Amino acid sequence: MELMKLKQHGNCRAGKRFAAKRSGCNLAPSVSNPAWTLSQILLATGGRFVSGNTDATFRNISTDSRSVEAGDLFLALTGAKFDGHAFIQDAVTKGAAGIIVSREPEGKVPVSVVLVPDTLKALGDIAAYRRSLMPGLRVLAVTGSSGKTTVKEMTAAILAREFNILKTRGNFNNLVGLPLSLLPVDSRHDFAVLEMGMNQAGEIARLTEIADPDIACINNIQEAHLAGLADIQGVSRAKGELFHGLKAWGKLAVNIDDKRVRAIANHCGQEKITFGRSPQALVRATHIRSIGEEGMTFTLHVGKEKARIQIMSLGVHNVMNSLAAAAIAVAAGVGIGEIARGLIDFKPFERRLQVEVLKNGVKIINDTYNANPASVKAALSTLQQLSRNCKKVAVLGDMLELGEQSAVAHRQIGEAAAHLDTDYLLAVGNFAGRVKTGAVKSGMSEQHALVFKDKAEVKKWLLTQMHTGVLTSGDLILVKGSRGMRMETIIEDLIAEMA
User: Fold this and answer.
1) Half-sphere exposure of residue 487, counting CA atoms within 13 Å on the CB side?
2) How far is CA 274 from CA 217, 250, 271, in A?
3) Which of 9, 18, 215, 237 has the highest CB neighbour number within 10 Å of its CB?
């Protein structure tokens, strides 16, 4: 058995590939049962067998001792705030048949033990090995500063009409989540639609190495994760790792409306499928119109073909997400008719501009999934588009991981809220004062730009306005903030109170 690496092609790195010498042993997991043998694990990871049963097989691979079931292989990850090695005994007690560790366990463990230098790398190597055994599988990879989960879900909705697909679970898009999403793939799958996220340089390069995509899309490049990437140029370089890591015969879905994405693509030699509102885009949109809470309508163009589409998602930015998904589908060989039907069937993902109606008729726009400057401005624009003779309230929590740009970015959000005629701006978090400063300097009255010490106070203010008739049936409340702010709890509390 040996580990083989493909040669580099052009300006793009090929991912690792594994090959087993044909010596009578079958190293490929069964297509119908993705069980693993110890030999496969050792081949994939380059690990050292320490002790236990050399004929062991493993049903699934788990990184969480709480979810381990009989026959699983437990992989002990380590992080800044946890160490999976502390839960080895828990995993064994629950029936784990083997463990992968980066240090030998204390005392004898009655299961097969594989020692590797780095368990996180081992997890990625196992997923890469699994992917290498599926030569007929086409992998589609999506990244971007915002909208990547929506693009992934839209792409999956299109392809699922004709093909068997595997897709990233939820937003499992990091060095742990992507391998775990890819591990269940088998020969029944035609496509894997994978989302790639990052908060520092090198992560997407590693994810690209693991997934070895055939089609890659950078949805956009915006100010996000600046704490780990310093500035927008750092974000651009990090996102560009996807295009630069793609095989030479792969295809790029390129947002030509985004100058940074366009610049990266210009340095790559792969076939390009362009998308955007630009007339030069192969996949483009015209006659875009908001139809309120029912979503958006637009005319989709693919070359000289066109189709009128209604999507259930709110906001012009979701039309752009639709174009990205359509471009990926075009790269995969799907026709405009199936693309249109897939987009029409698409259901918005949870906590992404979902409209919820309280018992008194006040409407909440739940966009609490995450936040960065671009996505907050898009949500505020959507709030303005939806308003028809009603009050507009924006409840905004901190945008996290912006580093030295945090103060400026939050002030600019306040400015945007004022320019978009938001009636009330409620800010909570460490940068709430900056949000208010930006709003007031841009013309919003201090009585309508409010700072709160916590989310409970925000809820109390909103309830007071509803009880006193300031906010009534039909009025809109947008709630948004970074994932770490858990802004959805405000909505949950309001619903419970109103019930």
Assistant:
1) 29
2) 10, 14, 10
3) 215
Ranges assigned E (strand) in 174-312 = 191-195, 215-218, 251-255, 271-276, 283-290, 296-302, 305-311
Domains and CATH numbers, the chain: 2-123 (3.40.1390.10), 134-345 (3.40.1190.10), 354-498 (3.90.190.20)
Q: CB count, 10 Å around CB of 48?
A: 12
Per-residue pLDDT tens digits for 357-410: 999 999 999 999 989 999 999 999 999 999 778 999 999 999 998 888 899 999
Residue 375 CA to residue 217 CA, distance in Å, equals 18
pTM > 0.70: yes or no: yes
Residue 22 makes CB contacts below 8 A (sequence gap 6+) with none
Amino acid identity for residue 493 in this structure? D
pLDDT grade, residue 34 (50/70/90)? low
E strand residue ranges, 213-311: 215-218, 251-255, 271-276, 283-290, 296-302, 305-311
Cα separation, 142 vs 327, in Å, equals 11
Q: How does DSSP classify residue 485?
A: G
The vertex-147 CA angle with 370 and 462, nearest 5°, equals 35
